[in-house]
Design brief:
Length: 230
């Protein structure tokens, strides 16, 4: 997972943005490169208005003088550029390794087009090797966890359900003030059904399966950048 490859993918995505566009800014180490490159353009007079998908990205973009707004002030975006933890068939995705999945999904869904940037290690034949992040309300954690465990059994999960911890060993808290349970499936054979089953649990705020949202992915490898289209 070289930083050079991530930057190359980010540079390809930068070619998609035009002056005057409203742009969703993703979160993570790959999206960070895109924000850096956009910042260079803004410093040279490029005009855009951006919505960040996390406090971390907001801080980075603000430091680069990228004009920011939110989805209360505007309700649609032209494009969102974001990273992914896995890219599966039909550009289905797992996201949320950095805990930003809720805002990322809201921003992607409010965008005319979502473009993913990644290195080739993220491309998989079937989603599920990366633990699926499930953002849950703190209230009722035990009950929500129990319901989630039943869904894991129904969907033949090969691994466990783990409360995400931060580096200090305390529960990781998202920008929205929620917790994350990471569910290791191994192989997700029915993503749509799994998505619905997860969303049917009252304590689930959102999950990291992004289905039908991504239109294009720029995937970088030592051989160059491949374009995958939906
Ligand atoms: O919550 C984090 C996001 O979904 C990231 O876009 C995802 O985890 C990929 O991050 P990275 O580019 O650092 O691998």
């Amino acid at each position: 997972m070289s930083e050079i490859e991530k930057r190359q993918a980010a540079a390809c995505a930068l070619e998609e943005v035009r002056s005057g566009m409203r742009i969703g800014l993703g979160t993570g180490s790959t999206a960070r490169h895109f924000v850096d490159l956009l910042g260079e353009r803004v410093a040279n007079g490029f005009e855009c208005l951006c919505v960040p998908t996390s406090e971390t990205t907001a801080d980075q973009a603000a430091a680069l003088n990228i004009p920011l707004t939110d989805l209360e002030t505007i309700d649609r975006l032209d494009i969102t550029i974001d990273g992914a933890d896995e890219i599966g068939p039909g550009l289905s995705l797992i996201k949320g390794g950095g805990g930003a999945l809720l805002r990322e999904k809201i921003v992607a869904a409010a965008s005319d087009r979502m473009v993913v940037i990644a290195d080739s290690s993220k491309v998989v034949e079937a989603l599920g090797r990366f633990p699926l992040p499930v953002e849950v309300n703190r209230f009722g954690l035990g009950a929500t966890r129990r319901s989630l465990e039943l869904v894991l059994v129904e969907h033949q999960a090969q691994g466990a359900l783990n409360l995400r911890l931060n580096s200090a060993g305390n529960p990781f808290v998202t920008d929205g003030g929620h917790l994350i349970l990471d569910a290791l499936f191994g192989r997700i054979s029915a993503p749509e059904a799994l998505s619905q089953a997860l969303l049917n649990i009252p304590g689930v705020v959102q999950h990291g399966l992004f289905l039908g949202l991504c239109k294009r992915a720029y995937v970088a490898s030592p051989d160059g950048v491949r374009t995958l289209n939906d």
